[in-house]
Structures are given as C-alpha cells and as structure tokens.
Amino acid sequence: MQYLVSVIDDGTGPDTPTEDAAIDVFNERLQAEGYWVFAGGLGSPEPATVIDNRGDEVVITDGPFVESKEYLAGFWIIEAPDLDVVLGLATEGSKACNRKIEVRPFL
Amino acid sequence: MSLVDVREAIAQAQHKEWARVVASLTRRFGDLDIAEEATAGAFATALERWPTDGVPPNPGGWLTTTAKRNAIDRLRRENKREDKHKEAQMLHDDDPPEPLGAVDDERLRLIFTCCHPALAMETRVALTLRMVGGLTVPEIARAFLVSESTMGRRITRAKDKIRAAHIPYRVPSAEDLPARVSGVLAVLFLVFNEGYLASGPDTDPLRHDLTAEAIRLTRLIRGLLPQDGEVAGLLALMLLTEARRTARVSALGELIALDEQDRGAWDTALVAEGHRLVRERLAASAAGVTPGRYQILAAINAVHTSARDVRDTDWSQVLALYDQLVGLDPSPIVRLNRAIAVAELDGPQVALASVDGLEDELAGYHAYHATRADLLRRLGCSQKSRAAYDRAIELAGNTAETAYLTRRRDQLG
C-alpha cells in the first residue's frame, strides 16, 4: 500500500539548515527500514505554469492553479502496510520538517 | 410461535449477536461495508424465515452462517474479488469455531477500528453505534440530532475511508494504546447513555442490552489498561448509574427522578463495586494524579448513591465536584447540571438565573427545558413552567421521560 505524504507550507518559508538536517535523518530512516519509495522538495508555487489543452487550443497560464496561503512544499511516497504505520512516520516527519503533513492513500 | 414472539427473538438476537457477526465477518472479508450489509441482510432473512421455520436453536450461529453466505453472494455479484484463490478460501470456511475469549477480542478490535483517530469524533461514535451497537441509522441520527441522510453519508464516508486508507483492523500496540483509549471511552459513554435513556417512540425507555454492552466493553478495556484512571472512572460512573436502573422507571413506564426513587431497589453489588473504584481513584488523586471528567462524574454519582435518603445528599460536595468539572469541561450541559446542585444549596431563583444564561446553546435540548420547568414550578410560576414542560415533552425522545414530564406538567396548579 502506497501513501502520498504531503508537506504543507502555511507561511513557514524556506527550510532552515536545522530542518534540512532533520529531514536527511528522517529520509535515511525511511530508506533503511524499507518505507521509502520517492520524495522531493518543491519551492514556492509562484513559478508554476498551468496548461489546459482540453479545448480547441492550448491555454497556458502563468502561476499556480489555486491561489492559497497554504501550498505543497514537498512530498514523500511511502510504502507501508497500513495507515497506523504511515501516521506514526508522518508524526516524525512533521517534527523533522517542522510543517503540517497530509497523508493520502494512492488508489 | 406467534409473530410477536419471533420479532422479540429477532430483537434479542440483534442486541446479543450483531457485533459478534459484524466482527467475525470483518475479519473474514476484511471489509466493514460488506460485513455490515451482509449482517443486516442476515437479520432481514431471519425476519422472513423465522416466522415459518421457527427460531433456530442457535440464533447466533444461524445468523453468522447466513451473513457469511450473504457476503459471498454479494462479493460474487459485485465481482469485487477476482482472485480465484481468495474465492476458494471464501467458499470453504475451515475456521475452527472461535472460543468465547477470541470473540470478545474480535469485538474489541472492531471498536478500536471504529474509534480510529484518523476519523472525526462524531464519525467514530456513529460508526461504533452502527457496527458494534447494532443501532439503525435512524436511531443514530436521532441520538445526534441530524437527518438520516446526513448520518447515512457520515457512516458511508467512514467505511470508505477505512477501506481506502487501510485503517487496520486490530487492537493498537501497547505504546499507542493510552492515546487511543480516550476516544473509545467517549464512544462507550455515548453507547451507555443511549441505553440509559433510549431514543425512539417504539423503543424501550431503558435498553439494558446497550448499557450492559457498554459496561462489558469498558470492563474489557479496564482489563487491558488497569492503571488508566479514566477507564476506572468511566466504569464506576456506568456501574453507579446502572445500579439505579430498576428504580428509575415505574411499573407504568414512567421515569422516576433521583429524588423520588426507592433507594432500597438500587443494586447494592453494583453500588459497592462503583464505590470501590471511586475510592481507588480518590486515593490516586490524593497522591497527586489529576482526575479526568469520568472520575469526577463517578465521584458525583458516588455522593448520590451514598445518601440513604435524598435529604441526606451532600449537595455542597456535589457542587464542589461540579466546580472542578466546569474547570475541566465548561460545556453548557455540565453548567446545566451544576445549576441543579446550585438549586439545592442556594435556591431555585439563583439556579434559574444561571440556567437562563444557557438558552442560546441549549434551546434544542429537552433537559434544558425540563430543568427550567422544574425550577419555575418550585418558584410558583405555573404558566411559565407549563410552557417549559411543553417544550421539553416536544423534544424528549425517551418514552419514560415523556410520561414523567407529562405527569409533572399535569400536576401544575
């Protein structure tokens, strides 16, 4: 079972060196214990570009598709047997990156 | 066997076997939704068959077998499982009959799943009442003062989330256990209350099955967590309340208020057990452990059940405990109950002033109007009292309570 573990930035701004170090430790643990599938960090949503090619011609829009104070700042994809395991990991992950975290199962 | 007897047998089986059947099917099929639908289907089949075939000698076994067949049929129809091996497993149930202890754990597992912290509190309560308590969606909707369709959606969404997010079907690990217990206790307290003051015009005013079930499950959790003060507190609270059960409703089906009860009819064994638990917690408080709300509520009930006559009630002790409770939980219902103690100490006028301040929050709550009606009656304001009784009767869902309120209203001069 795979879960998307999203990091939510609600105005915290870029990572501090302490947060980066804690995230590294957390990532190593995920890899060592076999939970790791993939992970990535994202910058602020300002440089985003939205493409919509559902109509006759492609529409390209500068900026994120939702304007929100909270945005996705990064994510992990975690392989775990059930939600309790992911919630335990996400609790540690939230502490490590010092941000709110959302857990969602993949289909 | 008459149709009435059959219906009675089905109602009994529903109270005794529902959670067992749901728990056993959930373990077997790994899906709460299938377990619930198949269990409900088995009871519907019983309703069709038992009047002609008679009630089977082992209703629980019959229901479990019927529910399992029903689940397999459903799975085939919905074509949810294509794995041939799994299907073969489903068709050949080689499981040995479960010893009672294992079944009890199975139900506990069901409770912890229904009370999972990833579900909203209101969802946990609703799901537990449906899956463990076997209440119908309309009954639960009524207990929560929401529409049936809202409640139905809430339960469906919860089952979908449990399935999609893989919320596990097990008793949590020792380290997670304490944190998971308070949610379970809140749910069990609500189940107990539904039994203690059952809703629905066609429901017995007291549903001993639900209070007994809540007590049984609370005892189970106490066995798992003997050091947890709130588990002990909730168990004591339930026992001291249950002890008064038979004294609480008259032969005519009317609620008898605490001050009018025959205290000789209280169950002395339950009172003694409840008092023992409260003393255990008082000793812990004296040693510096801060009591939680269930322990305080149990202590309040211990004061009431220690008075051999209502006139011996130590109201200042009751009020002191309510003050402690308000500090912990300043909810309007706690403040309403505190006002009842105030009325005994400082008179109905003072109590009425604090009750009237709760109108915005409690206008839809029958006990608010019943309390006001009683205070107004004691102050000699018959007309206002009558209006408050009318409103309380309108809102009360419990048949014994309605009868009691009606009598009090009709006694007004």
Give a structural overview:
The complex is a heterodimer of chains A (107) and B (413). Chain A is α+β, with helices and mostly antiparallel strands. Chain A has a single domain, classed as Dimeric alpha+beta barrel (Alpha-Beta Plaits, 2-Layer Sandwich), CATH 3.30.70.1060. Helices cover 29% and strands 35% of the residues of chain A. In chain A, strand 3 and strand 4 form a beta hairpin. By secondary structure, chain B is mainly alpha-helical. Chain B folds into four domains: 97 residues; 93 residues, no CATH class; 104 residues; 74 residues, Serine Threonine Protein Phosphatase 5, Tetratricopeptide repeat, CATH 1.25.40. Chain B has 21 helices and no strands. Classes of the chains: A alpha+beta (107), B mainly alpha (413). Chains A and B meet through helix 2 and strand 6 of A and loops of B.
